[in-house]
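ok here's thiopurine S-methyltransferase, seq below lol
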Amino acid sequence: SDAGSQKDRVVTEEEWLEKWEMGNIGFHKEEGHPLLQKYLDVLLNGKNGLRIFFPLCGKAVEMKWLADMGHSVVGVEISEQAVKDFFSEHGLPYCEEPVPEISGAKMFQSTSGNISLYCCSIYDLSSSIVGKFDGVWDRGALVAVNPCDRQRYASLMISLVEKNSSYLLVTVSYDPNKHKGPPFYVPESEIKSLFG
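and the structure came out like this:
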C-alpha cells in the first residue's frame, strides 16, 4: 500500500513526552521555517491581527515571530516542558491557568496576551474552548499524528477554522517502507481526501 508499513504504527503520548524529556527533538527547528517565510502572504492574505493556530506546536520559534507581527497565536502541545521552554527561550513572561473544560489541562499565556499555548491532547480541544482561526501553520502535526488518527485530526482541524481561512501544511516525501516514522508519510491523495 502507499503507506507501506506505517499504517498501523502508533506513537503514544508517553513516547512524545519522553522525546522532550530526553532532548530527542530533531523535529524542532531553531530557525523559522523557510516555507512559512515563502508562503507568509498566502497565510496572512493581506490581513492584520489574525488568529493563527499551531497544532502540536512544540516550542516553534515562528509563534513569537507571528505574534511580534501583531497576530494572535494559539498552540497546543502535550509536553509542558516544551511550552515552558518556548516562553523561557524567548524571555517571555507568562501566566498559567487550568482549562476548566479539560481535566488536567493548563493554558500558558504570555502576559502580553497574544500567545496562548494549551498543554493537553489536541483531541481535547474544540472551537467552544479555543474559538476559530483565520490561519493554521501545520509544520509537523499531520505528519506526527498516528496514521489511524488522521481522519479524526483532519475533522478537528476543519472544525477549528473560519470559512475563509488559510491552511499551510508541510509534509515529507519518502519511501514509507524504509522509515517507520514519525514523521509519517502522508501521500497527496490522502491530504485531498482528508481536507477536500
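fwiw The mean pLDDT is 93. kinda neat tbh
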